[in-house]
């Protein structure tokens, strides 16, 4: 794994990938590199103009790339269901649950869930479940869910998943990223129990320069905070090309084990992909089972063939 880069990715010809939030940042780099190595890539994002622009950019950077746009709003379960219903391929080899929001002011999704929990966790939980038949039909398929080193700030509160009691933006973000890891843990366990060779793994980018950091302050008009985030992106953060490497490694490198957590090698902050530390609560079987049951109840999506 030492020094691993996108040049080390294997040939992905004949494979199909879905990358959520692939119109910019880490998702864009992930989609571009998967396409560069031969995969058919579905750019799944909310904005059609931005999504189609990303498809055009990838086509310009990777001549001959097989890439297409499909609309997906993870904050609207009807959109998630529509995306899955329209998915045109019988097999799905790679699902990269990359899209996310961070430290936004309090808001709710179309279905009434707190936005960060709803988009970062529930939207991807529903998407993965609805695409499960296509994943199981592809030998050695992988599901990579992008979490964050910030998950260490807070465990989930199973009795207050939507932060109804008290909303603190960074705690809500951390809980959603813990939920990503608990989801990966439980999905990996259920896949193994079902005898499937599909691998569920997680990744995080460390501190990577994307528009994720500035979206929250901009939404509230906090110009000072926005400028501070912009400064951090310029001076401290690593570029999106490096931040995407853990996701690409988890999605394509040989020997990635179920429930792996891959991140940058240097202090979880920057550098080539490496196994990353995670809090003990993200491997709690009871917590992952309870979150799974709650997620099924909230989304109405059940994973047929993957029982507890």
Descriptive overview:
The chain has 308 residues and is an alpha/beta fold. 43% of the residues lie in helices and 14% in strands. The chain has helices at residues 25-36, 48-61, 77-86, 115-130, 132-136, 169-193, 212-220, 223-235, 240-243, 245-252, 285-299, and strands at 16-20, 40-45, 67-71, 94-97, 142-146, 199-203, 261-266, 270-275. An 8-stranded mixed sheet has the order 3-2-1-4-5-6-7-8, with helices on both faces. β1 (16-20), α1 (25-36) and β2 (40-45) form a beta-alpha-beta unit. α4 (115-130) packs parallel to α6. It comes from Streptomyces adustus. InterPro entries: NAD(P)-bd_dom_sf, SDR_fam. This is SDR family NAD(P)-dependent oxidoreductase.
Order of helices and strands: EHEHEHEHHEHEHHHHEEH
- Largest sheet properties: 8 strands, mixed
Rounded radius of gyration (Å): 18 Å
Indicate the proportion of strand residues: 5-15%
Number of helices: 11
User: How many strands appear in the DSSP assignment?
Assistant: 8
Shape assignment: globular
Task: Give the N-to-C terminal Cα separation.
Answer: 33 Å
What is the CATH topology descriptor? Rossmann fold
Name given to the CATH homologous superfamily: NAD(P)-binding Rossmann-like Domain
Q: How confident is the prediction overall: mean pLDDT?
A: 90
Q: Which structural category fits the helices and strands? A: alpha/beta
> Segments where pLDDT lies below 50 for 5+ residues?
212-219, 222-236
Number of domains: 1
| Fraction of helical residues | 40-55%
Main CATH class: Alpha Beta
CATH architecture: 3-Layer(aba) Sandwich
Strand order of the largest sheet: 3-2-1-4-5-6-7-8
Family: Belongs to the short-chain dehydrogenases/reductases (SDR) family.
Organism: Streptomyces adustus
InterPro entries: NAD(P)-bd_dom_sf, SDR_fam
Protein name: SDR family NAD(P)-dependent oxidoreductase
């Amino acid at each position: 794994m030492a020094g691993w880069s996108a040049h080390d990715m294997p040939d992905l010809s004949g494979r199909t990938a879905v990358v959520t939030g692939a119109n910019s940042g880490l998702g864009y780099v992930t989609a571009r590199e998967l396409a560069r190595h031969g995969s058919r890539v579905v750019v799944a994002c909310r904005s059609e103009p931005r999504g189609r622009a990303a498809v055009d950019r990838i086509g310009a950077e990777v001549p001959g790339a097989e890439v297409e746009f499909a609309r997906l709003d993870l904050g609207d379960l009807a959109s998630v269901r529509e995306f899955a219903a329209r998915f045109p391929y019988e097999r799905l080899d790679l699902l990269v649950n990359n899209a996310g929001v961070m430290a936004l002011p309090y808001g709710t999704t179309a279905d009434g869930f707190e936005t960060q929990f709803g988009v970062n966790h529930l939207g991807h939980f529903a998407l993965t479940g609805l695409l499960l038949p296509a994943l199981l039909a592809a030998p050695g398929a992988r599901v990579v869910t992008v979490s964050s080193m910030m998950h260490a700030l807070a465990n989930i509160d199973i009795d207050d998943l939507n932060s109804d009691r008290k909303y603190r933006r960074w705690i809500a973000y951390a809980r959603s990223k813990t939920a990503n890891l608990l989801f990966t843990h439980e999905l990996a366990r259920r896949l193994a129990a079902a005898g499937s060779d599909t691998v569920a793994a997680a990744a995080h980018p460390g501190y990577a320069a994307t528009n994720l950091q500035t979206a929250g302050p901009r939404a509230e008009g906090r110009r000072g905070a926005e400028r501070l985030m912009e400064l951090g992106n310029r001076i401290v953060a690593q570029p999106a090309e490096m931040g995407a490497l853990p996701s690409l490694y988890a999605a394509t490198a040989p020997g990635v084990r179920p429930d792996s957590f891959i991140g940058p090698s240097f202090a979880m902050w920057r550098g080539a992909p490496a196994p990353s530390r995670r809090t003990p609560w993200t491997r709690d079987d009871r917590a992952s089972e309870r979150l799974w049951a709650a997620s099924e109840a909230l989304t109405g999506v059940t994973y047929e063939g993957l029982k507890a």
